[in-house]
Amino acid sequence: MYEQYYGLTAKPFQLKPDPHFFFGSKGHKRAMAYLEYGLSQGEGFIVITGEVGAGKTTLVRNLFCKMASEKIIAAQIVNTHLDSDDTLRMVAAAFGLPYEDASKASLLNRIEQFLRACDRQGKRALLVVDEAQNLSPRTVEELRMLSNFQTEDKSLLQTFLLGQPEFRRILLGADMQQLRQRVIATYHLGPMDAAETRAYIEHRLNTVGWRGDPAVNPDAFAAIHEYSGGIPRKINTLCDRLFLMGYLEEIHGFGSPEVENVIRDIQQEFNLPPAEADVQGTPDLTASGQKTATPADLEDMDKRLAKMERSVISVLDLLKQIVSQSSIRNPSRGKS
Predict the structure, then answer these.
(1) CA dist list (Å): 160 to 17, 86, 182, 328
(2) Between the ranges 105-119, 133-147, 309-323, where is the mean pLDDT highest?
Protein backbone atom coordinates (compact mmCIF):
# COMPACT_ATOMS: atom_id res chain seq x y z
CA MET A 1 0.00 0.00 0.00
CA TYR A 2 2.49 2.66 1.13
CA GLU A 3 5.25 1.20 -1.05
CA GLN A 4 3.83 2.76 -4.23
CA TYR A 5 3.05 6.05 -2.48
CA TYR A 6 6.69 6.48 -1.45
CA GLY A 7 8.16 4.94 -4.61
CA LEU A 8 9.53 1.81 -2.92
CA THR A 9 10.02 -1.44 -4.82
CA ALA A 10 8.86 -3.68 -1.95
CA LYS A 11 7.70 -3.60 1.64
CA PRO A 12 10.76 -2.71 3.75
CA PHE A 13 9.51 -3.66 7.20
CA GLN A 14 7.89 -7.06 6.77
CA LEU A 15 7.94 -9.36 9.80
CA LYS A 16 8.84 -12.48 7.82
CA PRO A 17 12.56 -13.29 8.18
CA ASP A 18 14.19 -12.47 4.83
CA PRO A 19 17.97 -12.81 4.28
CA HIS A 20 17.64 -10.24 1.48
CA PHE A 21 17.30 -7.61 4.23
CA PHE A 22 20.06 -9.00 6.47
CA PHE A 23 21.80 -6.21 8.37
CA GLY A 24 25.21 -6.88 9.84
CA SER A 25 25.18 -5.11 13.19
CA LYS A 26 28.13 -5.77 15.48
CA GLY A 27 26.19 -8.47 17.28
CA HIS A 28 24.85 -10.09 14.12
CA LYS A 29 28.31 -10.14 12.53
CA ARG A 30 29.79 -11.85 15.59
CA ALA A 31 26.93 -14.35 15.72
CA MET A 32 27.41 -15.09 12.02
CA ALA A 33 31.11 -15.61 12.64
CA TYR A 34 30.31 -18.16 15.35
CA LEU A 35 27.91 -19.99 13.04
CA GLU A 36 30.45 -20.07 10.23
CA TYR A 37 33.16 -21.24 12.62
CA GLY A 38 30.90 -23.98 13.93
CA LEU A 39 30.02 -25.00 10.40
CA SER A 40 33.69 -25.28 9.52
CA GLN A 41 34.23 -27.67 12.45
CA GLY A 42 31.61 -30.06 11.13
CA GLU A 43 30.63 -31.44 14.54
CA GLY A 44 29.02 -30.69 17.88
CA PHE A 45 26.45 -28.10 18.83
CA ILE A 46 26.40 -24.35 18.25
CA VAL A 47 24.10 -22.38 20.57
CA ILE A 48 22.76 -18.92 19.66
CA THR A 49 20.41 -17.16 22.08
CA GLY A 50 18.61 -13.83 21.92
CA GLU A 51 15.40 -12.04 22.81
CA VAL A 52 12.21 -12.65 20.83
CA GLY A 53 12.60 -10.83 17.53
CA ALA A 54 16.36 -10.33 17.86
CA GLY A 55 16.97 -11.80 14.40
CA LYS A 56 18.11 -15.37 15.14
CA THR A 57 16.04 -16.96 12.36
CA THR A 58 17.10 -14.32 9.83
CA LEU A 59 20.69 -15.02 10.85
CA VAL A 60 20.34 -18.71 10.05
CA ARG A 61 18.55 -18.09 6.75
CA ASN A 62 21.36 -15.75 5.76
CA LEU A 63 23.80 -18.53 6.59
CA PHE A 64 21.80 -20.94 4.41
CA CYS A 65 22.14 -18.51 1.50
CA LYS A 66 25.92 -18.45 1.92
CA MET A 67 26.35 -22.20 2.26
CA ALA A 68 27.39 -24.42 -0.61
CA SER A 69 24.13 -26.31 -1.09
CA GLU A 70 25.86 -29.04 -3.06
CA LYS A 71 27.95 -29.94 0.03
CA ILE A 72 25.57 -29.33 2.96
CA ILE A 73 22.04 -30.62 3.43
CA ALA A 74 20.31 -28.39 5.97
CA ALA A 75 16.98 -28.91 7.72
CA GLN A 76 15.18 -26.76 10.28
CA ILE A 77 12.72 -27.56 13.08
CA VAL A 78 10.60 -24.71 14.41
CA ASN A 79 7.97 -26.58 16.46
CA THR A 80 9.66 -27.72 19.66
CA HIS A 81 6.63 -28.33 21.95
CA LEU A 82 7.07 -32.03 21.35
CA ASP A 83 8.00 -35.16 23.25
CA SER A 84 11.17 -37.04 22.37
CA ASP A 85 9.55 -39.48 19.92
CA ASP A 86 7.74 -36.70 18.07
CA THR A 87 11.02 -34.81 17.81
CA LEU A 88 12.60 -37.77 16.02
CA ARG A 89 9.67 -37.73 13.61
CA MET A 90 10.20 -34.01 13.04
CA VAL A 91 13.89 -34.61 12.33
CA ALA A 92 13.03 -37.35 9.84
CA ALA A 93 10.40 -35.19 8.18
CA ALA A 94 12.77 -32.20 8.00
CA PHE A 95 15.23 -34.31 6.01
CA GLY A 96 12.48 -35.65 3.77
CA LEU A 97 12.35 -39.15 5.27
CA PRO A 98 9.17 -41.20 5.81
CA TYR A 99 8.05 -40.99 9.44
CA GLU A 100 4.37 -41.91 9.71
CA ASP A 101 3.56 -45.00 11.79
CA ALA A 102 7.25 -45.62 12.39
CA SER A 103 8.62 -46.89 15.68
CA LYS A 104 11.45 -45.12 17.46
CA ALA A 105 13.89 -47.82 16.35
CA SER A 106 12.77 -47.45 12.73
CA LEU A 107 13.13 -43.66 12.88
CA LEU A 108 16.64 -43.88 14.29
CA ASN A 109 17.61 -46.44 11.65
CA ARG A 110 16.23 -44.30 8.80
CA ILE A 111 18.00 -41.20 10.08
CA GLU A 112 21.30 -43.06 10.45
CA GLN A 113 21.07 -44.57 6.97
CA PHE A 114 20.27 -41.14 5.53
CA LEU A 115 23.28 -39.57 7.28
CA ARG A 116 25.59 -42.31 6.05
CA ALA A 117 24.27 -41.90 2.50
CA CYS A 118 25.02 -38.17 2.71
CA ASP A 119 28.57 -38.96 3.80
CA ARG A 120 29.11 -41.38 0.93
CA GLN A 121 28.03 -38.62 -1.45
CA GLY A 122 30.54 -36.22 0.10
CA LYS A 123 27.82 -34.17 1.79
CA ARG A 124 27.22 -33.07 5.38
CA ALA A 125 23.94 -32.87 7.30
CA LEU A 126 23.04 -29.83 9.39
CA LEU A 127 20.04 -29.67 11.74
CA VAL A 128 18.79 -26.27 12.98
CA VAL A 129 16.44 -26.32 15.97
CA ASP A 130 14.58 -23.06 16.64
CA GLU A 131 12.87 -22.14 19.94
CA ALA A 132 15.22 -24.50 21.78
CA GLN A 133 14.09 -23.16 25.18
CA ASN A 134 10.92 -25.25 24.75
CA LEU A 135 12.78 -28.53 24.49
CA SER A 136 12.31 -30.97 27.34
CA PRO A 137 15.42 -32.62 28.87
CA ARG A 138 14.43 -35.93 27.25
CA THR A 139 14.11 -34.27 23.87
CA VAL A 140 17.51 -32.61 24.25
CA GLU A 141 18.94 -36.01 25.10
CA GLU A 142 17.47 -37.47 21.91
CA LEU A 143 19.13 -34.71 19.87
CA ARG A 144 22.40 -35.33 21.65
CA MET A 145 22.17 -39.05 20.89
CA LEU A 146 21.82 -38.23 17.19
CA SER A 147 25.27 -36.66 17.35
CA ASN A 148 26.65 -40.12 18.14
CA PHE A 149 26.13 -41.13 14.52
CA GLN A 150 29.64 -40.91 13.09
CA THR A 151 32.27 -42.57 10.97
CA GLU A 152 35.75 -43.44 12.22
CA ASP A 153 36.96 -39.88 11.76
CA LYS A 154 33.98 -37.51 11.77
CA SER A 155 30.47 -36.82 12.97
CA LEU A 156 27.57 -37.35 10.54
CA LEU A 157 25.28 -34.67 11.98
CA GLN A 158 25.85 -31.17 13.27
CA THR A 159 23.20 -29.24 15.21
CA PHE A 160 22.53 -25.52 15.76
CA LEU A 161 20.29 -24.64 18.71
CA LEU A 162 18.55 -21.27 18.62
CA GLY A 163 16.66 -20.11 21.69
CA GLN A 164 15.53 -17.31 23.92
CA PRO A 165 17.76 -16.12 26.81
CA GLU A 166 16.30 -18.65 29.27
CA PHE A 167 17.87 -21.45 27.22
CA ARG A 168 21.27 -20.34 28.56
CA ARG A 169 20.00 -21.03 32.08
CA ILE A 170 18.57 -24.37 30.98
CA LEU A 171 21.99 -25.36 29.64
CA LEU A 172 23.48 -24.82 33.09
CA GLY A 173 21.20 -27.46 34.60
CA ALA A 174 22.68 -30.65 36.04
CA ASP A 175 20.84 -32.77 33.45
CA MET A 176 22.50 -30.86 30.58
CA GLN A 177 26.10 -31.74 31.40
CA GLN A 178 26.50 -34.20 28.54
CA LEU A 179 25.07 -31.68 26.04
CA ARG A 180 27.38 -28.91 27.32
CA GLN A 181 30.33 -31.16 26.58
CA ARG A 182 29.24 -31.27 22.93
CA VAL A 183 28.79 -27.48 22.59
CA ILE A 184 31.74 -26.03 20.68
CA ALA A 185 30.56 -22.39 20.60
CA THR A 186 27.79 -20.25 22.10
CA TYR A 187 26.80 -16.64 21.56
CA HIS A 188 24.08 -14.32 22.89
CA LEU A 189 22.61 -11.94 20.31
CA GLY A 190 21.83 -8.68 22.08
CA PRO A 191 19.84 -5.63 20.94
CA MET A 192 21.21 -2.91 18.65
CA ASP A 193 22.27 0.48 19.99
CA ALA A 194 20.80 3.78 18.79
CA ALA A 195 23.29 4.26 15.94
CA GLU A 196 22.77 0.70 14.70
CA THR A 197 19.00 1.09 14.92
CA ARG A 198 19.17 4.08 12.58
CA ALA A 199 21.55 2.27 10.24
CA TYR A 200 19.25 -0.78 10.29
CA ILE A 201 16.20 1.27 9.28
CA GLU A 202 18.10 3.10 6.52
CA HIS A 203 19.52 -0.20 5.27
CA ARG A 204 16.07 -1.74 4.89
CA LEU A 205 14.77 1.40 3.17
CA ASN A 206 17.75 1.64 0.81
CA THR A 207 17.28 -2.05 -0.07
CA VAL A 208 13.89 -1.19 -1.58
CA GLY A 209 14.98 1.97 -3.39
CA TRP A 210 14.31 4.70 -0.82
CA ARG A 211 15.28 8.19 -2.07
CA GLY A 212 14.59 10.21 1.04
CA ASP A 213 10.78 10.23 0.76
CA PRO A 214 9.61 10.23 3.45
CA ALA A 215 12.34 12.01 5.34
CA VAL A 216 13.08 10.57 8.77
CA ASN A 217 14.40 13.10 11.30
CA PRO A 218 17.05 12.24 13.92
CA ASP A 219 14.49 12.64 16.72
CA ALA A 220 12.28 10.07 14.97
CA PHE A 221 15.14 7.54 14.92
CA ALA A 222 15.74 8.23 18.62
CA ALA A 223 12.07 7.67 19.46
CA ILE A 224 12.00 4.43 17.47
CA HIS A 225 15.05 3.12 19.31
CA GLU A 226 13.68 4.10 22.72
CA TYR A 227 10.43 2.24 22.08
CA SER A 228 11.92 -0.84 20.38
CA GLY A 229 14.96 -1.26 22.59
CA GLY A 230 16.95 -2.08 19.44
CA ILE A 231 15.03 -5.33 18.78
CA PRO A 232 14.63 -5.76 14.98
CA ARG A 233 11.11 -7.20 15.05
CA LYS A 234 9.81 -4.35 17.24
CA ILE A 235 11.52 -1.85 14.93
CA ASN A 236 9.84 -3.44 11.91
CA THR A 237 6.41 -3.41 13.54
CA LEU A 238 6.66 0.24 14.54
CA CYS A 239 8.13 1.44 11.23
CA ASP A 240 5.55 -0.46 9.19
CA ARG A 241 2.76 1.27 11.09
CA LEU A 242 4.56 4.62 10.84
CA PHE A 243 4.82 4.42 7.05
CA LEU A 244 1.21 3.26 6.78
CA MET A 245 0.09 6.30 8.78
CA GLY A 246 2.26 8.48 6.57
CA TYR A 247 0.53 7.12 3.48
CA LEU A 248 -2.96 7.54 4.90
CA GLU A 249 -2.31 11.08 6.13
CA GLU A 250 -0.07 12.15 3.21
CA ILE A 251 3.00 12.79 5.37
CA HIS A 252 6.43 13.13 3.76
CA GLY A 253 8.51 13.75 6.86
CA PHE A 254 8.58 11.87 10.16
CA GLY A 255 9.67 13.34 13.48
CA SER A 256 9.21 12.20 17.06
CA PRO A 257 5.56 13.45 17.22
CA GLU A 258 4.54 11.12 14.38
CA VAL A 259 6.41 8.20 15.96
CA GLU A 260 4.83 8.86 19.35
CA ASN A 261 1.36 8.98 17.76
CA VAL A 262 1.87 5.53 16.29
CA ILE A 263 3.28 4.20 19.57
CA ARG A 264 0.18 5.43 21.41
CA ASP A 265 -2.03 3.71 18.83
CA ILE A 266 -0.14 0.42 19.26
CA GLN A 267 -0.26 0.61 23.04
CA GLN A 268 -3.98 1.37 23.05
CA GLU A 269 -4.67 -1.63 20.85
CA PHE A 270 -3.08 -3.99 23.37
CA ASN A 271 -4.33 -2.33 26.55
CA LEU A 272 -7.22 -3.89 28.44
CA PRO A 273 -10.30 -1.68 28.83
CA PRO A 274 -9.90 0.51 31.94
CA ALA A 275 -11.85 -0.49 35.05
CA GLU A 276 -14.83 1.55 36.13
CA ALA A 277 -13.38 4.61 37.82
CA ASP A 278 -14.77 7.03 40.39
CA VAL A 279 -15.39 10.16 38.35
CA GLN A 280 -16.05 12.45 41.29
CA GLY A 281 -13.63 15.36 41.24
CA THR A 282 -12.50 14.58 37.69
CA PRO A 283 -14.74 16.66 35.44
CA ASP A 284 -12.46 16.09 32.43
CA LEU A 285 -13.25 12.35 32.34
CA THR A 286 -16.31 10.61 30.98
CA ALA A 287 -18.23 8.01 32.96
CA SER A 288 -16.24 5.27 31.20
CA GLY A 289 -12.96 6.70 32.43
CA GLN A 290 -11.98 8.16 29.07
CA LYS A 291 -10.69 11.72 28.73
CA THR A 292 -13.23 14.14 27.30
CA ALA A 293 -12.17 15.34 23.84
CA THR A 294 -11.24 19.02 23.65
CA PRO A 295 -12.03 21.25 20.63
CA ALA A 296 -8.38 20.98 19.61
CA ASP A 297 -8.60 17.17 19.74
CA LEU A 298 -11.72 17.19 17.59
CA GLU A 299 -10.16 19.57 15.07
CA ASP A 300 -7.06 17.37 14.80
CA MET A 301 -9.24 14.28 14.35
CA ASP A 302 -11.23 16.02 11.61
CA LYS A 303 -8.03 16.85 9.74
CA ARG A 304 -6.77 13.27 9.99
CA LEU A 305 -10.11 11.84 8.85
CA ALA A 306 -10.18 14.26 5.92
CA LYS A 307 -6.73 13.15 4.81
CA MET A 308 -7.69 9.49 5.13
CA GLU A 309 -10.85 10.15 3.10
CA ARG A 310 -8.81 11.77 0.32
CA SER A 311 -6.44 8.80 0.32
CA VAL A 312 -9.33 6.33 0.00
CA ILE A 313 -10.88 8.37 -2.82
CA SER A 314 -7.55 8.46 -4.69
CA VAL A 315 -7.24 4.66 -4.38
CA LEU A 316 -10.79 4.19 -5.69
CA ASP A 317 -10.07 6.52 -8.64
CA LEU A 318 -6.96 4.50 -9.43
CA LEU A 319 -8.92 1.24 -9.34
CA LYS A 320 -11.54 2.72 -11.67
CA GLN A 321 -8.82 3.71 -14.15
CA ILE A 322 -7.34 0.22 -14.05
CA VAL A 323 -10.75 -1.39 -14.64
CA SER A 324 -11.51 1.06 -17.45
CA GLN A 325 -8.17 0.43 -19.19
CA SER A 326 -8.68 -3.32 -18.82
CA SER A 327 -12.13 -3.05 -20.47
CA ILE A 328 -10.68 -1.08 -23.39
CA ARG A 329 -7.92 -3.65 -23.95
CA ASN A 330 -10.35 -6.58 -23.60
CA PRO A 331 -13.76 -5.40 -24.93
CA SER A 332 -15.12 -8.94 -25.15
CA ARG A 333 -14.51 -9.77 -21.47
CA GLY A 334 -17.60 -10.08 -19.37
CA LYS A 335 -19.88 -10.83 -22.36
CA SER A 336 -21.85 -14.05 -22.35
Answers:
(1) 18, 19, 11, 57
(2) 105-119
